[in-house]
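Protein data sheet
==================
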Amino acid sequence: MAVYEGTRYYPLTRATTLPRRRQATRIRAGRRTNRIGLAMAGILVAFLLGLFYLTQTVRVAATNYDIDTLLAQRDHMTQQLQSLQGEIAQLGAEISVTRRAQDLGLNPLGAPLWVRGR
């Protein structure tokens, strides 16, 4: 069996503990929290939330405007439909038709003529 130098047996010794460092890691590394950066981040978040609120408010207002416009158009079309139905009922009456025909110079027809088929 071959014995390598890295495989020598060393008796277990108790490791000595180092005194605890009192400064935080970020302070030791020279990285401290920047209050200006936090303030800028807060302002940015507030601005984005305000922008989101504004877009939603404008979208709701536009939708309400479209709904009001469509309701007004529906009411106008309903009035037109009722007016046209009244005109159709008036002009479609038999008396009105015969009177207009006579005004245009047409004469009423005589009795119908029936022709027998073969």
Observations:
- The chain has a mean pLDDT of 83.
- The chain is about 60% helix and 0% strand.
